[in-house]
Amino acid sequence: MIFWKIAKNEKMFRRYLAALFLWEWTQWMLVTAIPLFLHQRYGLGKEFVFSIVIELLPGILLGPIIGSWIDRWGAKRVTTLDIAAYSILVTLLPLSSSLWQVQLILLGIGIAKTAGSPASLTLRARVIPKGLEIQGNAAIMGIERLCKIIGPLAASMAILVFGIGTMLLLCSFAGLAAFALFYMLPAAESQKQAENENGFTKAIFSALPAFFGLLSRDRMIAAFVVTAIGYSLLLGMLKIFLLSLAGLYGDPQQYWGLLLAAQGLGSLAGALVCDRVVNRLTRTYSLTWVYFLFGLGEAVLLTGLAFPLGLTWTLFVLVLAAVFEIVATIIYFSVIQTRIPYEQQGLFNSMTLPVLDTCYAAGIMLSGALLSTLPIFSVLLVCLGFMLVTHLPFARLFFRDRAAEASTGSE
Predict the structure, then answer these.
(1) Cα separation of 293 and 64, whole Å?
(2) Neighbour-count burial of 68, counting CB atoms closer than 10 A to its CB (0-12 exposed, 13-18 middle, 19+ buried)
(3) What CATH homologous superfamily does 2-185+203-408 map to?
(4) Spatial CA neighbour of 123 closest among 45, 12, 30
(5) 380 phi and psi, to 5 degrees?
(6) Which residues of 161-194 are buried (b: 16+ CB within 10 A; e: fewer)?
(7) Packed helices 133-162 and 11-42: angle between N→C axes, nearest 10 degrees
(8) Distance between CA atoms of 109 and 41, rounded to whole angstroms?
(9) Which of 41, 83, 167, 257 is the least crowded, having the fewest Cβ atoms under 10 Å away?
């Protein structure tokens, strides 16, 4: 497999994958545990929804600043600071006794993630070997999705054996170990201090015009951003939908992790076959058209969840839909990394992620509101509609484009 060839020949990429594996595993355990922690204390009411959303608020409010932070201090440094802060704050959750304390801790975690997410994506662009964007992103996404399988399962088992409090403490220790691995990563930092000394405030206020200029110069990038918005809305609504669905099958603490693991299994399978599938399809179609088809394919497959045919059927649909999702995601990052210069990727990531976080939060709140008035499966159809609305207007653009395919070197 080409994955092993890249990992064998590229030392920095190999070390990055090792650090990423440990951190992603830790994060997916926390993705499983924190909603269960909130659900256990507050149920699925407004306290739960607002506590989930408050973690996303820093990303919405501070996003334009993060690009200048990445330029000023480097993607690796910002990523490691995020991991350290996240890992320390997690230990405080089980010690909290009031709702405001929980929300304050989640707000702090949100601030760390606001800086860490775009920095991590920017660092990824530096460690992936040139010309191997599809293969490199497939390897990274494969590890992320493998952790999406083992993380929720490990979290569910640890919660049953040790309890949520002890499990959160174990995640904190694992996170600090991941911090050490990222800190030792031999990734050279970009040097932009001289530019930033001319005016830190100026860099902040110049972010928006620079970002919109980037979108206006390349309609394909703008189209990718809009489709990502639709996917973020779907993801937010699907989170609450799956948690409610887990309650229909029995104990949410058991079935929530199982549903997430099914998505992870499908994503892992998709990452393993992505390179071969993309290479075969791009002999006939543009890379962007393959992205479009797989994005809509995921939405079509998820409609299968509207048929209450039992747990086995639900797991099958989630696995199959996740295969389509991961292929589309790998193409998304590969095209973005090749069409946008590395020097502008910190800006792009710091501007798009707050927008996507906003849509994700909107999806969570909308799903929570609709569940109180509509049947659970009607809510699913509403959220899938957002994928159609944000994808279909760009069908002709994606079909015609051949430049992205050539620039990614996917042949």
Answers:
(1) 32
(2) buried
(3) MFS general substrate transporter like domains (1.20.1250.20)
(4) 12
(5) -60, -45
(6) eeebeebbbbbbebbbebbebbeebebeebebee
(7) 40
(8) 19
(9) 41
Which residues, 6+ apart, have CB-to-CB distance to 317 below 8 Å?
301, 302, 304, 305
Model confidence pLDDT, tens digit, residues 171-196: 888 888 888 888 887 755 554 544 44
Residue with tokens 């006794």: 97
Backbone phi and psi for residue 130, each to the nearest 5 degrees, phi listed first: -60, 140
Q: Where are the alpha helices (DSSP H) in 74-189?
A: 75-90, 99-127, 133-162, 164-183
SS3 97: coil
User: Left if phi > 0, otherwise alpha if psi is -120 to 50, otherwise beta: which for 62?
Assistant: alpha
Residue type at 270? G
Q: Indicate the DSSP class of residue 191.
A: -
Picking from 127, 146, 147, the residue whose alpha carbon sits closest to that of residue 137 is: 127
The pTM of the full predicted model, rounded to 2 decimals, is 0.70
How far is 130 from 252, CA to CA, in rounded Å? 44
Q: Which two tokens stand for residue 385?
A: 């509609």
Query: For residue 297, which amino acid is it?
Result: G
Q: Which of 411, 295, 340 is nearest to 124 (CA)?
A: 340
- Give the residue from 374, 381, 274, 276 showing the smallest Cα distance to 331: 274
How many other CB atoms are there within 10 angstroms of residue 41's CB atom?
Answer: 14
Distance in angstroms (rounded) separating the CA atoms of residues 222 and 360? 18
Nearest to 408 by CA among 295, 269, 286: 286
Domain range annotation of the chain: 2-185+203-408
Separation of alpha carbons 136 and 132, rounded Å: 6
d(Cα 211, Cα 99) in Å, to the nearest integer? Answer: 37
346-401 per-position pLDDT tens digit: 778 777 877 887 888 788 777 777 767 777 677 777 777 777 888 877 777 777 65
Q: Which amino acid is at 276?
A: R
